[in-house]
Each structure stands twice: as C-alpha cells, then as structure tokens.
C-alpha cells in the first residue's frame, strides 16, 4: 500500500496490542520470585471480603456497647439510690435534732415553771408568815379572837390575895362601880343591855371555827356616823345582846345560854368593839354583821334575821348596805348571799347523811 493511500482503522491493531500486553504480562509473571509476593495484600484482600468477620465484629461491638450502657445505667441507678438514702438519713437526723431540741426546750420550760412555782410558794409562805405575825399582834385588840377578860371585878373572891394586896385598886373599882351605877340609872337602855350580858365563849368558838362567814356591812350616809345611843336602842330591839367579854353584840336563836349563834355585830372602826358605858358619846361610821357557817341550827332563818337587822339600821339611821368587798349590796347581791347559805346547808346535810 502506498503512502498516499488512506488506511481505514481495523481491529487488527488492537489485537496486536492485546497480544503484546498479554505477552508482557506473562513474561512478568514468569519473571517474579516467590519471596517477592506480598502476603498482606492477600490478607487485605481477604478482609475486604470476610463478611462473617464483619458481622461478628459488629455483634461484639454491640455487646460491648450494651454491657457498657448497662453498667452506666446501673451506676446511675446506684447513684440515685445513694442520694435518696442520704436524703433520708439527713431527714432522720434533722428530725432527731428537732426532737432533741424540743425535749431540751420542754425541760427548760418545766424547770422554769418549777422555779417560778417555788418562788411563788416562798413568796406566799412569806406573805402568810407576815400576815400571821400581823394577825397575832392584832389579836389582843380583836374582839372575835382575843382571850376572855374578867367581866366583873366584883366576881373575884373578896378574900383573895390580890384583894388584900391591892386595897387601893379595890377602892378605885368601888368608885368606878358607883359612877357606873349613876350611868345605869340615867340610861335604862344601857341598864337593859348590861342586865342581859352574855358569855362570849360560845360565840367566839362559832366565829373562830367557821368554814365560811357571810358579811353584811351598814355604812352611815352621814359624815358624823351612827349615834351610839340610837344604835344601842335598835340592837336591843332587834334581839341582839351585848357581850362585855368581847365588847360586841350577838344574836342567838333563843334565850337559852346554850343556844346557837345566829350572827354578831362589830364596829367597822378598830378594834371593832363598842364602849357600852359611853354609848351616849360614841359614834361610828358603820357596823358589820357576821354570820358564821356552820352556826345556827336554822341557817336560813339566821340569814333572814341578819338581813332584816341590817335593813332596820338602814331605814332608821340612814345607812347603806355593803358586801365583804365594800361594794354596794343590791337585791341581787343579797340573793347571791342567800344562795351561798342554802348551798352550804345542802352540803352540810349531805355530809351528815353520808356520815350516818
């Protein structure tokens, strides 16, 4: 074929090239040495195609991850449990501390209360001691509790040693007796009072051993007070009898010497007595009626007699009723006092019934 002639491509050239490449490859293989073979390439080629190993690797990794998650979860749960337990222990400790504190506070309060009660008891004992001392000092002037005096000097035996040793005193008493005789002749009311003089022992015992005492005072509305003469006349009219031993008036249930005391009347001014020999010059701002319980056999009648006597003084001498607290007595207050008497009588009857 000439150079000027154009040649068409054909597959023969490719075939020739393929044959050349195959021949060179065959020569290359034939020329390789065994020690020049790289096993890692075979291993790598093997790993790339080992699907079972890949699956096992995934499973192993999954198991390890699951175990790790389980351990993490277990650790988390244990931490939560530890925190809950710690909170519970802290709560128990706080409750114990509060309980101990409350117990300490209660003990301190109890000790303080006991100390306060002890101090109060000591103060009360001291007050009672001072009150007892004051009463003991005033007893000599108290007509209700003072020891009885000799009512009449002429009751002493004339042949006694005292009469012989003090003749001047006897003469003085005789002079006083003569003077008193003149007073008696001048005042028939006073003569009546002295003639009906009563012993004070029975009345003193009733007043000093009373469980309760009903008190009604009659205070004068006049600044000059009650007249002694008018007061003496009213008391004798109301059935009261004068006691020279005590220097006060008493009203008994009957004229019998052993009759029970209904009530007594004392002067509101200390020492509480009435100077019977000088009632004409005597004046007082008020009188107090005292009804002991127990006392009269019929306490209701005794109370009504005392109220009526107080009202007689109010009506005739212009007085005002006062209770034991020096408050004005009203009809309601009198009713309360009457209820006290009735309640005491009821309890007294019940006690007697139980004893019998």
From TrEMBL:
<feature type="compositionally biased region" description="Low complexity">
    <location>
        <begin position="165"/>
        <end position="176"/>
    </location>
</feature>
<protein>
    <recommendedName>
        <fullName>Cell division protein ZipA</fullName>
    </recommendedName>
</protein>
<keyword id="KW-0997">Cell inner membrane</keyword>
<feature type="region of interest" description="Disordered">
    <location>
        <begin position="1"/>
        <end position="176"/>
    </location>
</feature>
<dbReference type="GO" id="GO:0005886">
    <property type="term" value="C:plasma membrane"/>
</dbReference>
<comment type="function">
    <text>Essential cell division protein that stabilizes the FtsZ protofilaments by cross-linking them and that serves as a cytoplasmic membrane anchor for the Z ring. Also required for the recruitment to the septal ring of downstream cell division proteins.</text>
</comment>
<keyword id="KW-0812">Transmembrane</keyword>
<feature type="compositionally biased region" description="Polar residues">
    <location>
        <begin position="69"/>
        <end position="78"/>
    </location>
</feature>
<feature type="compositionally biased region" description="Basic and acidic residues">
    <location>
        <begin position="30"/>
        <end position="50"/>
    </location>
</feature>
<dbReference type="InterPro" id="IPR011919">
    <property type="entry name" value="Cell_div_ZipA"/>
</dbReference>
<dbReference type="GO" id="GO:0043093">
    <property type="term" value="P:FtsZ-dependent cytokinesis"/>
</dbReference>
<keyword id="KW-1003">Cell membrane</keyword>
<dbReference type="GO" id="GO:0000917">
    <property type="term" value="P:division septum assembly"/>
</dbReference>
<feature type="compositionally biased region" description="Basic and acidic residues">
    <location>
        <begin position="1"/>
        <end position="21"/>
    </location>
</feature>
<dbReference type="Pfam" id="PF04354">
    <property type="entry name" value="ZipA_C"/>
</dbReference>
<comment type="subunit">
    <text>Interacts with FtsZ via their C-terminal domains.</text>
</comment>
<keyword id="KW-0472">Membrane</keyword>
<dbReference type="GO" id="GO:0032153">
    <property type="term" value="C:cell division site"/>
</dbReference>
<comment type="similarity">
    <text>Belongs to the ZipA family.</text>
</comment>
<feature type="domain" description="ZipA C-terminal FtsZ-binding">
    <location>
        <begin position="210"/>
        <end position="341"/>
    </location>
</feature>
<dbReference type="InterPro" id="IPR036765">
    <property type="entry name" value="ZipA_FtsZ-bd_C_sf"/>
</dbReference>
<feature type="compositionally biased region" description="Basic and acidic residues">
    <location>
        <begin position="81"/>
        <end position="137"/>
    </location>
</feature>
<dbReference type="InterPro" id="IPR007449">
    <property type="entry name" value="ZipA_FtsZ-bd_C"/>
</dbReference>
<keyword id="KW-0131">Cell cycle</keyword>
<keyword id="KW-0132">Cell division</keyword>
<keyword id="KW-1133">Transmembrane helix</keyword>
């Amino acid at each position: 074929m000439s150079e000027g002639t154009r040649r068409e491509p054909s597959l023969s050239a490719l075939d020739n090239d393929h044959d050349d490449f195959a021949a060179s490859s065959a020569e290359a293989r034939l020329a390789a040495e065994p020690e020049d073979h790289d096993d890692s390439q075979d291993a790598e080629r093997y790993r790339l195609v080992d699907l079972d190993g890949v699956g096992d690797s995934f499973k192993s990794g999954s198991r390890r991850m699951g175990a790790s998650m389980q351990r993490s979860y277990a650790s988390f749960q244990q931490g939560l449990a530890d925190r809950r337990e710690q909170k519970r222990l802290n709560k128990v400790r706080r409750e114990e501390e509060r309980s101990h504190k409350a117990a300490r506070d209660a003990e301190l309060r109890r000790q303080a209360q006991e100390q306060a009660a002890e101090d109060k008891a000591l103060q009360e004992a001291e007050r009672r001691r001072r009150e007892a001392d004051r009463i003991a000092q005033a007893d000599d002037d108290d007509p209700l509790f003072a020891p009885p005096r000799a009512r009449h000097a002429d009751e002493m035996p004339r042949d006694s040693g005292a009469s012989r040793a003090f003749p001047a005193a006897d003469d003085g008493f005789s002079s006083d007796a003569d003077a008193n005789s003149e007073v008696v002749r001048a005042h028939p009311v006073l003569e009546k009072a002295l003639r009906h003089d009563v012993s004070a022992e029975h009345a003193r015992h009733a007043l000093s051993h009373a469980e309760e005492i009903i008190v009604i005072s009659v205070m004068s509305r006049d600044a000059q007070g009650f007249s002694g003469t008018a007061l003496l006349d009213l008391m004798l009219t109301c059935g009261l009898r004068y006691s020279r031993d005590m220097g006060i008036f008493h009203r008994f249930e009957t004229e019998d010497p052993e009759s029970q005391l209904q009530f007594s009347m004392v002067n509101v001014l200390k020492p509480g007595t009435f100077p019977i020999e000088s009632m004409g010059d005597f004046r007082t701002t008020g009188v107090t009626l005292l009804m002991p319980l127990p006392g009269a056999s019929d306490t209701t009648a005794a109370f009504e007699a005392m109220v009526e006597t107080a009202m007689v003084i109010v009506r005739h001498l212009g007085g005002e009723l006062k209770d034991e607290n020096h408050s004005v007595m009203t009809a309601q207050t009198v009713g309360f006092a009457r209820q006290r008497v009735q309640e005491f009588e009821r309890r007294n009857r019940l006690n007697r019934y139980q004893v019998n």
